[in-house]
Design goal:
- This protein is α/β, with parallel strands linked by helices.
- 18% of the residues lie in helices and 26% in strands.
- The chain is built from five helices and 15 strands.
- It is globular and about 45 Å long.
- Bound molecules: fe (ii) ion (FE2).
- The site of fe (ii) ion has 5 residues, from loops.
Length: 281
């Protein structure tokens, strides 16, 4: 296993990924992890065959987490979509780290959404009723789970779809991002297009523009996305740290697989480490 400090790739003048987020001086420090795109039903890939199936590679992340001691031990793990729960559900009994998931385009059908809601009934609720989007508060930090994969499994993201239930996610998100907690962290599957362009693999043009503006106005501490199967990339919208997270299953151009470890310190300082769990032969 190889670990390295994750370097800020885009923020001008910043050398390391430890910055002060919004005020949260009385926060109790803790850590959590972010896993993207486990694609749990996929078979072993030739170039990553030594790490086994997708489910094996997902479990490998928790093997690394088990070695994290003290304040580094994650309180929970966010899973940013394209889960393919069918392939993972038999292994989840061996995962002691609590999981919080959002749907990806591989969970776009009503049946897959229901499976996810059934597996995690403590999440996927809004006002006590089933919902594809939800939030929770952990040690004073608000975590906002957004569903932006809807229309029939396509790769362009959106907030409104007959497959995203209940309707009204945009108004809900405006409220969540205006909530009183000083540190807010959002996660979803499909990232916004940075320039608000019309580009496959990102939120739609208009959703991207609305979302980017909302982030600039409400200034959450960080947003985490999966979907792209590229090396982890960080950039900023105003004060907000935006992360496109590498898959733990496979990435384009034979890039290593892995996940993120995030430490939240008193004062709202987030330190993010990009952790490799496998390299192609
Ligand atoms: Fe995806």
């Amino acid at each position: 296993m190889k670990r390295r400090e994750f370097l800020v790739l885009a923020a001008a003048g910043a050398a390391a990924s430890s910055v002060r987020a919004q005020s949260g001086a009385d926060l109790e420090p803790f850590s959590f992890c972010v896993i993207a795109d486990p694609h749990g039903s996929e078979a072993a890939k030739p170039e990553l065959e030594r790490y086994g199936t997708a489910a094996d590679k997902f479990m490998r992340c928790f093997g690394v987490m088990a070695e994290m001691k003290g304040g580094d031990a994650p309180d929970f793990c966010l899973v940013a979509g394209d889960i393919q729960l069918d392939g993972l559900k038999d292994r989840l009994k061996d995962v002691s780290t609590p999981l919080h998931m959002v749907a990806g385009n591989h969970e776009s059908t009503p049946e897959k959404r229901q499976m996810l809601r059934n597996a995690f009934p403590g999440d996927f609720k809004k006002d006590g009723k089933e919902s594809d989007y939800y939030s929770f508060i952990h040690k004073g930090v608000r975590f906002i789970a957004v569903c932006d994969a809807g229309a029939g499994g396509e790769h362009v993201g959106q907030f409104c779809s007959e497959n995203i239930r209940p309707s009204g996610q945009c108004e809900w998100l405006e409220g969540e991002l205006s909530a009183r907690e000083p540190v807010k962290i959002l996660f979803a599957h499909i990232p916004p297009e940075r320039g608000g362009g019309d580009q496959n693999m990102f939120m739609s043009r208009n959703d991207s523009r609305w979302f980017n503006r909302l982030i600039a106005e409400t200034r959450p501490s960080a947003c985490f996305f999966g979907h792209l199967h590229q090396p982890t990339l960080e950039y900023r919208i105003g004060d907000t740290r935006m992360f496109q997270v590498r898959s733990c299953c496979w990435n384009f151009n034979r890039e290593p697989v892995g996940f993120l470890h995030v430490s939240v310190a008193a004062g709202g300082v987030l330190t993010v480490r990009d952790i490799e769990t496998g390299r192609c032969l």
